[in-house]
């Protein structure tokens, strides 16, 4: 039997898109290919309409832009802006149906005819499909196990939608921290009945990353590097999303917060050309954070003169052992007997 051609579609907020949203596609494709009965010909990210109204859902203009940036390095996952361009929120069943119908209409036309289709209607289609594909192609819902478990939230999903999504399309579920999709299926009569169309993919390289946690870190001006694509981080700061405008303190690259009265300014082991300051002035927040050569114009609470760039304690000092067996420190090339004489062997220092 020929393997079924599949397009995986992930529906969600993507506010912001994280590396785990992208990983989800890779993990699922590997798994389906290993099972041998599916060929994944494409992936789609379909961000939800603004009217979904979830907390911290930034406008679809921003989410679409961030997803586009995230997908720049993906050869097979594309963006579908269809949901965002509708009048209002669309149920997931309809989203799957829309994309399936569009593919079917092309497959059913003579010679995969794209002539009567608007470019916007098929920009999301995989390149291999656009270059000529013989069907059938099945659109499956790709999701994390938390979305599967949201099926149990009273009033959130219509029973017939759950049934149609699984029966007519199929579900590919990636495990996530604190979820147990197999147990969840076991506890549901409907899901157990439809189990043949649900593929559970275990993510062994676990990363408990969520958009919620990323937003929290951004709000607290903590680093989110390596959790989001760099270009997405740049975009977030440039557009002051997720509370990044209100940052009170900027640190580059020292991890210390505001100096307490008892703080001693530490001297660096090597000359510092760009001393770091704690900054207590939100006027400078528009400075691009991520291009780290910060040019700080105004520093409220720290006197620049306090920052000692001349001495570098910690820099290696030569320790010599004299014929008597005594150890001495050599400073500026000269032995300093007053301060430098050591009572113990150097290796015990
Ligand atoms: N770390 C992850 N592991 C597996 N699936 C994930 C992960 N993060 C997100 N997903 C899945 O990606 C899809 C879209 O997710 P969504 O935009 O809701 O992200 P989220 O991180 O769960 O967001 P939020 O924290 O805002 O609720 C959902 O199916 C979700 O389960
Ligand atoms: N009845 C439904 O079709 C239904 C209900 C709840 C969420 N959803 C979808 O699930 C996704 C959930 O995203 P979040 O996890 O970000 O809330 C969204 O794409 C949303 O549209 C669909």
TrEMBL record:
Q: Name one GO cellular component term.
A: mitochondrial matrix
Organism, scientific name = Aquatica leii
Listed under subunit, the entry gives:
Homotetramer.
This protein's record includes keyword Magnesium:
no
EC class of the enzyme, as a word: transferase
Name the cofactor(s). Mg(2+)
Compartments where found: Mitochondrion
EC number assigned by the record: 2.7.7.1, 2.7.7.18
- Gene Ontology MF terms in the entry: ATP binding; nicotinamide-nucleotide adenylyltransferase activity; nicotinate-nucleotide adenylyltransferase activity
Phylogenetic placement of the source organism: Eukaryota, Metazoa, Ecdysozoa, Arthropoda, Hexapoda
Q: Which Gene3D superfamilies match?
A: HUPs
Q: Among the record's GO biological process terms, what is one?
A: NAD+ biosynthetic process
Pathway(s) this gene product operates in, as recorded in its UniProt entry = Cofactor biosynthesis; NAD(+) biosynthesis; deamido-NAD(+) from nicotinate D-ribonucleotide: step 1/1; Cofactor biosynthesis; NAD(+) biosynthesis; NAD(+) from nicotinamide D-ribonucleotide: step 1/1
Pfam families reported for this sequence: CTP_transf_like (PF01467)
Q: Which UniProt keywords apply?
A: ATP-binding, Mitochondrion, NAD, Nucleotide-binding, Nucleotidyltransferase, Pyridine nucleotide biosynthesis, Transferase
Q: Which family does it belong to?
A: Belongs to the eukaryotic NMN adenylyltransferase family.
Tell me which residues make up the Cytidyltransferase-like domain: 9-216
What function does this protein fulfil?
Catalyzes the formation of NAD(+) from nicotinamide mononucleotide (NMN) and ATP. Can also use the deamidated form; nicotinic acid mononucleotide (NaMN) as substrate with the same efficiency. Can use triazofurin monophosphate (TrMP) as substrate. Can also use GTP and ITP as nucleotide donors. Also catalyzes the reverse reaction, i.e. the pyrophosphorolytic cleavage of NAD(+). For the pyrophosphorolytic activity, can use NAD(+), NADH, NaAD, nicotinic acid adenine dinucleotide phosphate (NHD), nicotinamide guanine dinucleotide (NGD) as substrates.
The reaction(s) catalysed by this protein are:
nicotinate beta-D-ribonucleotide + ATP + H(+) = deamido-NAD(+) + diphosphate; beta-nicotinamide D-ribonucleotide + ATP + H(+) = diphosphate + NAD(+)
Q: What is the protein's name according to its record? A: Nicotinamide-nucleotide adenylyltransferase
């Amino acid at each position: 039997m020929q393997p079924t051609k599949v397009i995986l579609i992930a529906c969600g907020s993507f506010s912001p898109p994280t590396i785990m949203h992208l990983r989800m596609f890779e993990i699922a494709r590997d798994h389906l290919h290993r099972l041998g009965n599916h060929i994944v010909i494409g992936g789609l990210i379909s961000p939800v309409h603004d009217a979904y109204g979830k907390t911290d859902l930034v406008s679809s203009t921003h989410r679409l832009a961030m997803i586009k940036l995230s997908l720049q390095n993906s050869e097979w996952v594309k963006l579908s802006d269809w949901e965002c361009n509708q009048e209002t929120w669309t149920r997931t069943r309809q989203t799957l149906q829309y994309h399936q119908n569009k593919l079917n209409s092309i497959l059913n036309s003579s010679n995969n005819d794209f002539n009567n289709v608007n470019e916007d209607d098929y920009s999301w289609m995989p390149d291999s499909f656009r270059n000529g594909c013989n069907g059938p192609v099945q659109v499956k819902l790709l999701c994390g196990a938390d979305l599967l478990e949201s099926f149990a939230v009273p009033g959130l999903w219509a029973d017939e939608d759950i049934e149609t999504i699984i029966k007519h399309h199929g579900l590919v579920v990636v495990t996530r921290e604190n979820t147990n999709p197999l147990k969840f299926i076991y506890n549901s009569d409907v899901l157990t009945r439809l189990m043949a169309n649900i593929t559970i993919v275990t993510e062994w390289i676990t990363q408990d990353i969520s958009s919620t946690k990323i937003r929290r870190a951004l709000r607290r001006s903590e680093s989110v590097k390596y959790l989001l694509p760099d270009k997405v981080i740049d975009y977030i700061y440039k557009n002051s999303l997720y509370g990044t405008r209100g940052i009170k303190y900027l640190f580059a690259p020292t991890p210390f917060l505001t100096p307490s009265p008892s703080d001693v300014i530490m001297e660096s082991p090597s000359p510092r050309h760009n001393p770091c300051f704690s900054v207590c002035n939100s006027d400078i927040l528009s400075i691009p954070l991520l291009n780290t050569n910060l040019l700080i114009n105004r520093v409220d609470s720290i006197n620049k003169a306090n920052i000692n760039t001349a001495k570098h304690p910690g820099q290696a000092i030569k320790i010599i052992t004299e014929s008597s067996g005594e150890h001495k420190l050599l400073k500026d090339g000269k032995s300093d007997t007053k301060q430098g004489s050591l009572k113990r062997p150097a290796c015990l220092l």
